[in-house]
Design brief:
By secondary structure, this protein is α/β, with parallel strands linked by helices. The chain folds into two domains: about 5-265 and about 470-480, Aldehyde Dehydrogenase, Chain A, domain 1 (3-Layer(aba) Sandwich); about 270-460, Aldehyde Dehydrogenase, Chain A, domain 2. It contains 16 helices and 25 strands. The chain has a seven-stranded mixed β-sheet with strand order 19-20-21-16-15-22-23, with helices on both faces. The chain has a six-stranded mixed β-sheet with strand order 12-11-10-13-14-24, sandwiched between helices. Strands 1-5-4 form a three-stranded mixed β-sheet, with no helix packed on it. A hairpin with a 2-residue loop joins strand 7 (about 135-140) and strand 8 (about 145). Bound molecules: nicotinamide-adenine-dinucleotide. Nicotinamide-adenine-dinucleotide (NAD) binds near residues 230 and 469.
Length: about 500
């Protein structure tokens, strides 16, 4: 096999330098649509990670970065955004070949986060990082003393940035943007499944005017890397995006050193189809919204709630639309909407859920198997279940695959109750012609984000209620998460 030698190979980025892993070890990333290797990645060790943490600590404690002028931090973020703009074709190729992202999603996966980095750059300048509080009177010997307080948002320190692989640039931008804007230093440890976009960002940063040690990137397969990063007493904060079980483990580990913890976790979001919603309009939105990218998104509305008497009609329309317009295959085909799932293990996990759905008595309306036209690659058919009860496994747990559960409700009160009967609280959707009613219902839905009729604001705060997370990303909310509040009184 000579192919391994022709693969693009990547190192780790520590203290302003590209290096190989200290053992020289590497691992390969497959194209999930073809199972062919696409890149060779440095398989870093715990010692490599330690060197990165030390570099970030030193850069924070002894370097000029945390006192850098706001305009300098803004300029760094603009330079990163400009560099990414220039590398968009490379990023596009990586998303297609290593993440199975369909071409219809790539624009939003690249353009919005680049815009977002500039927005964080502007916020670095505009953010009101120092506020004077109204004076207070203090009884003091010999009279009254008037005290003034200055509230200062300080950087939090060394940040462990642990993202997952789906929508990689958006997740990176939501950590890098506020992290840099507030003057923190950081160690990124991307998902071993797809670290290519993280590596491309590192290549861009290496060309920017950022003091060494401020930004470090460690790739590797060992779960010890993430665990060590969270355990390290040299790290002040963890910003994590991933699953609920890992998030809980991180919170437990971080508690030992009382690190600041920010968790963006999974979801099992519900779309409430109200009685006045036009089924012809909503059926395609509901089906495509989950199936595109093989359902590998945190906020997908994988529970569709519809009035009992309209369930049959909705299922028919969703199935018809999917069969006619939702093409499955290798995302090099621009018409493909459902690409592969990221790995064989993910496919097997999803298939386990499909079996559970059948076993629990849900009606399999569409899909449920492996597509015959794709003998290679980790594909799962777009799968639609009807007559799902909210306590079934397929409705209670996040599948992270192309599987929709349609759940009938009696009336709106029942719909709200079902939507809220979940351990998750990430997102939700309401489909109706009556926006005022939708807003009133949205306020009763216990999730961090609610979309009415498909509206979405990538610059708003995002995050979860309940087990879907802790803290918020997005703009000012994100900046606050990456700062410590200090009160100076005189
Ligand atoms: P995961 O929890 O398995 O892994 C996420 C990251 O954590 C990876 O980088 C992994 O290497 C690392 N990790 C694993 N064990 C660790 C440990 N003990 N300590 C520290 N780090 C550790 O999640 P995944 O399967 O990669 O991602 C899918 C999940 O991410 C889904 O639940 C999805 O909903 C969620 N997600 C959430 C958001 C959001 O914004 N809320 C966005 C995207 C994805």
């Amino acid at each position: 096999m000579t192919i391994a030698h022709t693969l693009p190979a990547y190192g780790i980025y520590v203290d302003g330098e590209w290096k190989t892993a200290s053992t020289g070890a590497t691992y390969t990333i497959p194209n999930p649509a073809t199972e062919e290797p696409v890149a060779e990645i440095a398989d870093a060790t715990r010692d490599d990670l330690r060197a990165a943490i030390i570099a970030a600590r030193r850069a924070f404690d002894d370097g000029p970065w945390r006192r850098a002028a706001r305009m300098d931090r803004r300029n760094v973020l603009y330079a990163i955004a400009d560099g990414l703009e220039r590398r968009k074709d490379d990023a596009r190729r990586m998303l297609l070949s290593a993440a199975g992202v369909p071409q219809a999603m790539i624009g939003v996966q690249l353009d919005k986060p680049i815009e977002m980095l500039r927005w964080y750059g502007d916020l670095a300048v505009k953010f009101d990082a120092e506020q004077v509080l109204p004076p207070v009177e203090l009884a003091a010997p010999g009279g009254v003393r008037v005290c003034t307080s200055l509230v200062v948002h300080q950087p939090v320190g060394v940040c462990a940035m642990i993202p997952t692989w789906n929508g990689p640039l958006i997740i990176i931008a939501q950590k890098l943007g506020p992290g840099i804007a507030m003057g923190n230093t950081m160690v990124f440890k991307p998902s071993p499944l797809m670290p290519l976009i993280d590596l491309l960002v590192a290549e861009v940063i290496a060309e920017c005017d950022l003091p060494k040690g401020v930004y470090n990137l460690i790739t590797g397969q060992s779960p010890d890397l993430g665990q060590d990063l969270v355990e390290s007493p040299m790290v002040d904060k963890v910003s994590f995006t991933g699953s609920v079980p890992t998030g809980k483990r991180i919170a437990e580990t971080a508690a030992r050193t009382l690190k600041r913890v920010h968790l963006e976790l999974g979801g099992k979001s519900a779309a409430l189809v109200l009685d006045d919603a036009d089924l012809d309009q909503v059926a395609p939105v509901l089906a495509a919204g989950v199936f595109i990218g093989a359902g590998q998104g945190c906020s997908r509305t994988t529970r569709v709630l519809v009035q009992e008497k309209r369930q049959e009609a909705l299922l028919e329309k969703m199935a018809a639309f999917t069969q006619k317009s939702v093409k499955l295959g290798d995302p090099v085909d621009p018409d493909v909407l459902v690409g592969p799932v990221i790995r064989e293990e993910s496919r097997r996990r999803i298939e386990g859920y499909i079996e559970a759905g059948k076993h629990d008595g849900a009606t399999l309306v569409l899909g449920g198997g492996r597509p015959q036209q794709c003998p290679r690659g980790y594909f799962v058919e777009a799968t639609l279940f009807g007559n799902v009860r909210n306590d079934m496994k397929i409705a209670a747990e996040e599948i992270f695959g192309p599987v929709i559960s349609v759940i009938p409700f009696r009336d709106e009160e029942d719909a709200i109750r079902i939507a809220n009967a979940s351990s998750y609280g990430l997102a939700g959707a309401i489909l109706t012609r009556d926006e005022a009613k939708a807003i009133a219902i949205a306020k009763r839905v216990r999730t961090g984000n609610v979309s009415i009729n498909g509206a979405y604001n990538i610059f708003g705060p995002i995050g979860g209620f309940k087990e879907s997370g802790l803290g918020r990303e997005g703009g000012i909310f994100g900046l606050r998460e990456f700062s410590e509040v200090q009160c100076i009184t005189w």
